[in-house]
Amino acid sequence: MKSLKPGRRYALSPSHYLFAAVFLLRLIALLRLTGSAFLLPNSGDMHFYNEWAQRILHGQVTEHHAFYGLPLYPYLLASLYALFGRSPFIPGFLQAILDGGTAVLLYKLAEKIFSSPAPPGHPAVAGPQNRPRNFLKRYRGECVGVLAALGWGFFLPEEAYSAILMPAAGLVFVFWFVVWQIVRRREAPAPLGSLMLGVLIGFTAMGIATILFLAPLLFVALFFKWNWTGDTRSILLAKGAAAALAFIGFGIGASPCWIHNYFIAHDPVFLSAHSGVNFWIGNNPVATGYPRFPPGLHAGQKAMLEDSITTAEKAAGRSLKRSEVSAYWSEKARSYIKNNFGAWLKLLLVKAGNFWSAFQYDDLSIITILREQNVILPGLKFGLVAALAIPGFLLAFSKYPLSRWVAAAILLHMASLLTVFVTERYRVAAVPGLLLGASFGVSELWQSCVSAKYSRAALYLVLLLAATLFVSIPQKDPGLWALDAYNAGWQALQVQDLPLAERKLKLAYSYVPENAEINFALGNLSLAQKELEKAESYYAATLHLNPKHVGALNNLSVLALKEQRFDLAAKFLSKAIEQDPHDAKTHYLLARTFMLLHDRPQAICEIAKAIDLEPNQPAFLKLRDDLH
How far is the C-alpha of 543 from the C-alpha of 556, rounded, in Å? Predict the structure, then answer.
């Protein structure tokens, strides 16, 4: 038996150092976040996930409806909260580990795809004087891997998304783990291996369903890339069996979701019934390729989902199962596509352009605010990475055939977003692959220059110029430019950072002064600054732009109550209830107003409605007791 060489067993490879470096970068951002006002989510999708996890902890494991939102991340959060306490730090810590794992996968992918060492004794490496010049050529894969992994560590959007309550880090790791399994193998996996790859994809789909678009890549690898042994007939049978096992694995991995929906909620939904409304948001007459909400749906995950249910039920005139709600919105989207096929094809081209665009549509607006608060470090943005990646993949296509699998994975992820819409966090899963292409392109330019292959260097620069022009096509809609400033201002307002909120909201207002939500936010800012007349004017402008704006109606009623104009307050609150009859707080305010108007029967009626909607609110119960 051969003995191990001393020190070999515990030797560290570059991948270990890259993991440590990226993990450390993510940990720095997370520790800075814990010292900021943005650790605990108070709005947006982070709040949606956190609130769902809190309900699970309080025993509301199921609502006896099909899931209306992908459930994996909230249930994982609830498990972590139960084990370690209700702090977002532990999920962020685990997400930092996953990002470190993604850096390792990038290094291994680059090593596999781009390594082509010269044979021993080759003139290119024989003389010591040639070693510095040909180091990059000799260690091409390793150099590309290090560059791509460090690029991932300093990719600005992921610095933000890995620190907050967001499942992006998990999706990215699993996505590129599956791609690595496809790329690294020459021989077909054992039957259990095919099954487990399917299980992994299916399980991850309960958190982010777009990973299902990797299934075609897996099936192509099964039939055309991996080697099989045996005669023709046995190989065909083995390939068919492996594909069937992978398909079964999808179902096994996602089984907690569909078992709940089919057998507990008694609703035939495979993953989540909110796919229908997402399909409609991405494919409707006012769609822009970004998540622009059509009339009747409010922005924000929770509000949008609630609106989608009530709108569908109102149209049907009855209570609906979640699958029926999804079908309602899907049918609206299909009807739009069928009746406006040419316009829809143009919309697809717009979405494809949005996917590659340097314009940062961060629907959470967390990147800008965390950067301005020095929570995350300066880093790369999508536009730069995409511009460098396009010429890199074009040059690698023929020379390094395995790079085609990475390019195919990126295009499949893009295709998954064309069905709905594009946002910064949705396209982040493509970034590790783009970093591989970008890093190879940079290495190819360097190698061409040191080897005096100026024609190849010129070709790269021409392709880079074309790619830069493509990703830099400007966005002309001022509403898109206002979104980031508006969301950042709204979040600053939530944490009472009034100077930052004022700066951001006024910037958003300068882009689109005719936007109801921006006027409403400025009204709230003026209210927080105790400038009541200015607040009232902004709320009046909000109602002029959107007469059904519930928030403006409620806040105007509060101002009217302060001025003891009780009739006017009752008028505003009644209009607000017409728009949202399920808002318990509005019923409570109207009950108080009727009490001040000495209309006791109406006050008793309204407080009864408020308590029916939220039976455990102490203020509601006290007002009822006072009235009785």
Answer: 10
DSSP label at 10? T
Question: d(Cα 517, Cα 509) in Å, to the nearest integer?
Answer: 10
List pLDDT tens digits, range 154-178: 999 999 999 999 999 999 999 999 9
Distance from C-alpha of 590 to C-alpha of 569, rounded to nearest angstrom: 8
Q: What contacts 24+ positions apart, CB below 8 Å, involve 297-306?
A: 299/517, 300/43, 300/44, 300/48, 301/44, 301/45, 301/48, 301/69, 302/47, 302/48, 302/51, 304/277, 305/68, 305/69, 305/274, 305/277
- Classify residue 452 as left (phi > 0), alpha (psi -120 to 50) or beta: left
Q: How confident is the model at residue 136 (pLDDT cuts 50, 70, 90)?
A: low
Who's near 469: CB < 8 A, 6+ residues apart? none
DSSP secondary structure code for residue 474 in this structure: P
Cα–Cα distance measured from residue 508 to residue 368, given in angstroms and rounded to the nearest whole number? 14
Please give the radius of gyration of the chain, using alpha carbons only, rounded to the nearest integer.
28
Q: Which residues contact 563 (CB under 8 A, 6 or more apart)?
A: none
The one-letter amino acid code at 131 reads R
187 — phi, psi (to 5°)? -95, 150
- What single string gives the DSSP state of each residue in 547-563? TT-HHHHHHHHHHHHHT
Query: Which of 172, 363, 168, 212 has its CA nearest to residue 281?
Result: 363
Q: What single letter denotes the amino acid at residue 602?
A: Q
Q: Rounded to an integer, what is the distance from CA 409 to the centroid of its chain? A: 18
Q: Indicate the burial class of 2 (C-beta count within 10 angstroms; 0-12, 13-18, 19 or more).
A: exposed
pLDDT above 90: residue 13: no
For 192-252, the DSSP string reads HHHHHHHHHHHHHHTT-GGGGGGHHHHHHIIIIISB--S-HHHHHHHHHHHHHHHHHHHHH
Q: Is the dihedral of CA 90, 95, 96, 98 positive or negative?
A: positive
